[in-house]
Amino acid sequence: MERILSLVCGLVMFIGVQAQQADTSGMIRYTPEFRFQDGLFLNFDQVKSNAPLPKSRILTTLDYNDDDFFSRLLQEKNVYYYDDLGTKQALQVSKIWGYARNGMLYIRVGNEFDRITFIGSICHFIANVSNYSNRYNDPYMTDFSYNPYYYNNYRYGYPYNQVETKDMQQFLLDFETGKVMNFDVKSMEALLTRDPQLYDEFTGLSGKKQKQLKFLYLRKFNEHHPLYFPNNLKNPIQ
């Protein structure tokens, strides 16, 4: 009898583990081994279903086997491709959500594409953000005419240079809505409202502690709310 009970318990545990990996709706839980299908994500719905536009449907003279294929392709103004009906389409690069390369996910921020390094129900990533400042020309200012990141303009009859600088900033991607937001206490509070226990814990901390522990609560939220993708042959978990 004890042996039978042991076998039953073992079977129950096995079923429980399998249930964690795939639910009855045909979804499979995200793990660090998950690989996104390589291709262009024209919108966020394609990201959620891991169903990008494959290279084979992209019209280009670039070498499809080039490691820098996507970065070269997205330097153009438009991307041309065949849709599901075989009709040729054109889409501005500025409207493309992102792409996957070697299983890694990249998102467009401004005019650049940055890799999302921490993926879950709440994703975290770092991106270069362009900032512009005006510098007026006068005899005592440095000549910026050699700088490739400036634009000549005139204001009130006086010439000035608009100089571009880039700063590294941290962002969050809400995988439920596709919304991108700054990684700060305000954003974390808004996202944690979906988990009353974590929200009460986080808002009960001092402002200093909230800043220090916001990444910890991001991880806690992802542990409580796993991310799932469609479980089909196009979305393998290796």
Plain-language structure description:
The protein is an alpha+beta fold. The protein has a domain at 28-115. 27% of the residues lie in helices and 32% in strands. The protein has helices at 2-21, 44-48, 69-73, 185-192, 196-203, 207-224; strands at 27-29, 39-41, 58-59, 78-82, 88-92, 98-101, 104-109, 112-115, 122-136, 150-155, 158-174, 180-182, 228-230. The strands form four sheets. It has a four-stranded antiparallel sheet with strand order 2-6-7-8. Strands 9, 10, 11 and 12 form a four-stranded antiparallel sheet that branches. Strands 3-4-5 form a three-stranded antiparallel sheet, with no helix packed on it. The relative contact order is 0.14. Residues 4-24, 139-151 and 233-238 have low confidence and may be disordered.
> What's the order of the H and E elements?
HEEHEHEEEEEEEEEHHHE
Whole-number average pLDDT? 83
* Rounded radius of gyration (Å): 24 Å
- Beta strand %: 25-35%
Distance between the termini: 39 Å
Low-confidence stretches: 4-24, 139-151, 233-238
Q: Give the tally of β-strands.
A: 13
Shape: globular
Helix amount, in percent?
Answer: 25-40%
